Amino acid sequence: MEKIPILKLGDFLLVTIQVDMHDRLALALQDDLSTRVVSSGARGVLIDISALEIVDSFIGRMLGNIAAISAVLDAVTVVVGMRPAVAITLVELGISLKSVRTALNVEKGMELLRQAFEPRSQNQ
Amino acid sequence: MTPRQESLQIDSGEKLVAVRQAVRAKAEELRFSLVDQTRIITAASELARNTLQYGGGGSVAIEIVENGTRRGLRLTFKDQGPGIPDLELAMKDGYTTGGGLGLGLSGSKRLVNEFTILSKVGEGTEVTITKWK
């Protein structure tokens, strides 16, 4: 069965969704990521959805679930790269993804994750 | 030239991807704006999933329609499932009998220009949406 690859980058996991996912594939990703967060001891999960042309309520719910599950497992999830048309449609559909942290691109998402875990030594 | 109308069976989860792709092709052909393309594809995805989950499978007809000089895309989802006993309730945000978010019908209505739903208990459901350019 096809699978969405999960890459480990230091303390973080990186997932780049590049295919139009059917529902079972989305659910498989949710399960795989949860398992990998625990087995790798990752502190952060970065999900790049810049290639996704739509996010419907199912995928929206999956993104919310991943954020909630990883929070329970002591990791922070950041969703990056959402296209403007996708953001408009998602909000009109009635999904606000309030519980999901977002960033404009992978670079800014990594920055957000690093800030979340770095000791605040720079401010001293 | 692509035909003005095509019909797809919705009988498995993989077919949702095929429906989205077929709707995208037609929306591109009509030169919908990127946001309108995204809206109609998303609405199609929601309704195709309803057809599969609640209707036990069915079909969608995808057609290009005209009204004077205006062109649009019309999608008709049909199933022979159990039907919806209370349409008013089913159209409410957050109401679900299937464990989802309850945004499929109400949410997709907000993404299109026209939305009609016909349902008869024991016979099935037909949802028609139209997006005008």
What does this 3D model show about the protein?
The complex is a heterodimer of chains A (124) and B (133). In chain A, strands 1-2-3-4-5 form a 5-stranded mixed β-sheet, sandwiched between helices. The model of chain A has no long low-confidence stretch (mean pLDDT 92). Chain A has helices spanning 23-40, 57-72, 84-93, 106-117, and strands at residues 6-9, 12-16, 44-48, 76-80, 101-103. With 124 residues, chain A is an alpha/beta fold. Chain A has a single domain, classed as STAS domain (Transcription Regulator spoIIAA, 2-Layer Sandwich). In chain A, a hairpin with a 2-residue loop joins strand 1 (6-9) and strand 2. Chain B is α+β, with helices and mostly antiparallel strands and 133 residues long. Chain B is 37% helix and 32% strand. Chain B has helices spanning 13-29, 34-53, 87-90, 104-111, and strands at 5-10, 58-67, 70-79, 114-120, 124-132. Chain B has a 5-stranded antiparallel β-sheet, with helices on one face. In chain B, strand 2 (58-67) and strand 3 (70-79) form a beta hairpin. The model of chain B has no long low-confidence stretch (mean pLDDT 94). Chains A and B meet through helix 2 and helix 3 of A and helix 1, helix 2 and helix 4 of B.
